[in-house]
Write a structure and sequence with these properties.
By secondary structure, this protein is α/β, with parallel strands linked by helices. The chain folds into two domains: 1-42 and 55-73 and 118-198 and 309-357, 3-Layer(bba) Sandwich (FAD/NAD(P)-binding domain), CATH 3.50.50.60; 81-114 and 202-296, Polyamine Oxidase, Chain A, domain 2 (Alpha-Beta Complex), CATH 3.90.660. Helix content is 24%, strand content 25%. It is built from ten helices and 21 strands. The strands form five sheets. It has a seven-stranded mixed beta sheet. Strands 10-2-1-14-21 form a five-stranded parallel beta sheet, with helices on one face. Strands 13-12-11-15 form a four-stranded mixed beta sheet, with no helix packed on it.
Length: 357
């Protein structure tokens, strides 16, 4: 048996890792020039690695893939973690900055963060080593023909790859945009369920300053119902790290992100962020500015969004088609709440089990 995996993000890499363990032949076709998908890091920005994508180890997500089991417990000695418990929390709303330190007492699960590594490091060390040799980069798949016993995937260069089964792990935003054509077309109920999902735009930025003038966490626009879909927050990215640098992180998604993503270039986008910080902190941002980096996931050509919001039925999204086309990814984990790295990884376990039994 041979299996084609479309996409080398967390779900695709995990699937390859599992197939390697089961001694099943596979090949991964990745559209971009690197693996990891929405797991991405930068080593040369600060004296600790920066997570441009997935950053938190969300304890409230029930997914527990075996490959990350010790990390999720905070018990892997190779990947030390610390509880993410901010103590100084402020809100910028209606032109006023207010401290809301009592928010830290909210009864919410405490996430973990990596002390001196990242989700990318974890994926690389625990799942990737035996997989990369079978990964073809810069190979965007544009057509999947499953009309015969053998499935044929064709890339934008016209190269064809065939297998007994195919596992599609591309971000659901790409499926919604129909960047991959299926022959025959996917069933109508499958296509309808894909379109039900909501994947808002989003971005991250990291800014270094010569001194620290900001709280642990700063919410822009306040905390409100539905904020998970319309989040806009600055946070001390160096907190808990072995670092004396002053690195402010920024994350936004959904409608709150539109006033940032509407700018035509990363330079214009960051200029808007710096003006906003100057307004909040009386010009200190420009005075103390050292350097910055921006990752706009909305404009990432093979991602085009942040992460799914569980508006569709994960079981239906994960259902196979014709016994030859299978699906996995952070939006397609039927085992409880998903999204995040461990949700995507766990979905691969379910898909691989279905494909090889």
């Amino acid at each position: 048996m041979k299996i084609l995996i479309i996409g080398a993000g967390t779900a695709g890499i995990t699937a390859g890792h599992l197939l390697e363990q089961h001694e099943v032949d596979f090949e991964i076709l990745e559209a971009s020039s690197t693996h990891g998908g929405r797991v991405r890091k930068v080593d040369n920005f600060a004296d600790f690695p920066i997570d441009l994508g997935a950053e938190w180890i969300h304890k409230w997500i029930r997914a527990k893939p075996a490959v990350f089991k010790q990390i999720l417990k905070g018990a892997d000695p190779n990947f030390p973690t610390f509880p993410d418990k901010p103590t100084t929390i402020s809100i910028w709303k209606n032109g006023k900055l207010r401290a809301r330190n009592w928010y830290r007492h909210f009864p919410v699960p405490t996430d973990l963060k990596f002390t001196d590594s990242t989700w990318f490091d974890a994926l690389n060390r625990l799942a990737t080593p035996a997989v990369l040799a079978k990964t073809r980069f810069d190979s965007p798949v544009v057509n999947i023909d499953y009309s015969n016993d053998r499935v044929v995937a064709t890339t934008d260069s016209g190269t064809s790859h065939d297998a007994d089964r195919v596992l599609v792990t591309v971000p659901i935003a790409m499926l919604q945009r129909e960047t991959i054509r299926f022959e025959p077309p996917l069933p109508e109920d499958k296509r309808s369920e894909i379109q039900k999902e909501e994947v808002p735009g989003g971005l991250k930025a990291f800014i270094e300053f010569s001194t620290r003038f900001y709280p642990d966490v700063l919410h822009v626009g306040g905390l409100r119902r539905g904020s998970a879909l319309n989040e806009c927050v600055y946070y001390d990215a160096a907190r808990g790290k072995h670092s004396d640098r002053h690195i402010l992180g920024f994350f936004t998604q959904g409608s709150a992100a539109e006033r940032y993503t509407s700018h035509g270039t990363d330079e214009q986008l960051f200029a808007h962020i710096l003006r906003e910080l100057d307004e909040i902190f009386d010009g200190q941002a420009s005075e103390q500015y050292v350097q910055h980096i921006v990752q706009d996931w909305t404009r990432e050509p093979y991602i085009q969004g942040s992460y799914s919001q569980r508006k569709a039925n994960a079981e239906k999204l994960a259902e196979s088609v014709a016994g030859r086309v299978f699906f996995a990814g952070e939006a397609m984990n039927p085992n409880g709440k998903t999204i995040a790295v461990h949700g995507a990884s766990e979905s691969a376990y379910t898909a691989v089990a279905a494909m090889i039994t």
